[in-house]
Structures are given as structure tokens and as C-alpha cells.
């Protein structure tokens, strides 16, 4: 919960500081926070459902010896939220900026056409951002996957390993957070752009 609040504050500060307070940034902030909350909820839900412990990373195991009071499961979920924040913020700002530019270039555009344009931009952006997110997570786990391959570890044991399961939850939560941010940002940005004129 603390991570979600800090992510929301970070989003507000970052976007408003970089682009100022206007209808475009308001839409981007709302879309980003919605996507991050979705990613956080899904990470928490699926992580609890598949019994993630948070002890999968070497640095967490070292931290365990110095601080037994730390909530390692909470740290795992906080890392998932923070990891997804950048990608979700990127896609929300891109969509809000695109819709604002479309509306300024064609003030006569209908609300439905503006929404359709926003979804086309979102569709293109989501495919590349999801790939970026997944490849980043796979890239960080590559040595572990190579180790499993060398030792001919069965796939069911690989998937049930806490480290691999954590990365799978990261991928799904982050990707679905991105997917959730797109329609919210599109509708809010189109609504604000259309009513601003």
C-alpha cells in the first residue's frame, strides 16, 4: 500500500514537473495511477495465490541475515509495482500527448474519431511496451534459465521455482497494468481535450 501511494505521488510530481499542469498531464497522471494500481493488485493477488515468498533473489537472502523484521513478500510486490511504473507512465504520457496533438491539429474531429485515434496509438504503443517489459524481465533471469537448461531441469520444476514464478507474475502484472492504463488514458484525455475546446 505504501508503494502504491509513493508511486502515485511520484507520478504526480514527475509528470506535472516535466510537462506542467494541463489537461494532457491530468489524463496521463490518472491513466498511470490506474495502471499501477491494477498492476499492484494483480501482483498481490496472483503472488498470494501461487504462494510467492519473496526469498528468491540473492540480495533478499543476504538482507534476511541482517534484518529479520523485513517483509520480504512486501518487498517483492513493491519491486513489481516500481518496475511497472516507468513503462505505464511512458505509455500514458504518449497517449495523452497524441490525443492532445490530434485534437489541436483537427479541432473539428468528433469525439468518437478522437477515441478511435487514441486506441490506434495505444495499440501500437502497447505492443512495443509489453515486449520491452517482458524482455527486460527475461533478460534479468537469463542466467538462471541457462542454468536450468544446462542441468536439464523439467519445465514443471522451473515454473514452480520461486524466482521464475516471481518473474512470471512481474510480466503478467506489468503487462496487464499497461493494458489497463490505455483505455483509461484514452477516454480521459479525449474527454478533457474535447471539452477544452
TrEMBL record:
The chain crosses the membrane at residues 30-53, 74-96, 132-150, 171-194. Pfam families: YibE_F. Keywords: Membrane, Transmembrane, Transmembrane helix. The lineage of its organism: Bacteria, Bacillati, Bacillota, Hydrogenispora. This is YibE/F-like protein. It comes from Hydrogenispora ethanolica. PANTHER family: MEMBRANE PROTEIN, MEMBRANE PROTEIN-RELATED. It comes from the Bacteria. InterPro entries: YibE_F (IPR012507). The keyword Signal does not apply.
Amino acid at each position: 500500500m505504501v508503494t502504491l501511494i509513493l508511486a502515485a505521488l511520484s507520478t504526480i510530481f514527475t509528470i506535472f514537473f516535466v510537462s506542467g499542469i494541463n489537461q494532457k498531464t491530468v489524463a496521463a497522471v490518472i491513466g498511470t495511477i490506474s495502471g499501477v494500481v491494477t498492476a499492484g493488485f494483480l501482483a498481490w493477488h496472483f503472488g498470494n495465490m501461487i504462494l510467492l515468498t519473496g526469498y528468491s533473489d540473492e540480495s533478499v537472502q543476504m538482507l534476511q541475515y541482517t534484518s529479520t523484521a523485513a517483509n520480504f513478500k512486501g518487498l517483492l510486490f513493491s519491486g513489481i509495482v516500481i518496475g511497472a511504473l516507468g513503462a505505464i507512465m511512458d505509455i500514458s504520457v504518449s497517449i495523452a500527448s497524441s490525443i492532445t496533438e490530434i485534437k489541436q491539429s483537427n479541432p473539428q474531429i468528433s469525439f468518437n474519431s478522437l477515441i478511435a485515434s487514441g486506441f490506434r496509438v495505444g495499440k501500437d504503443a502497447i505492443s512495443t511496451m509489453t515486449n520491452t517489459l517482458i524482455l527486460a524481465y527475461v533478460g534479468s533471469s537469463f542466467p538462471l534459465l541457462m542454468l536450468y537448461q544446462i542441468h536439464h531441469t523439467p519445465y514443471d520444476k522451473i515454473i514452480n521455482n520461486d524466482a521464475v514464478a516471481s518473474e512470471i507474475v512481474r510480466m503478467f502484472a506489468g503487462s496487464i497494468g499497461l493494458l489497463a492504463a490505455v483505455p483509461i488514458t484514452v477516454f480521459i484525455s479525449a474527454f478533457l481535450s474535447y471539452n477544452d475546446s
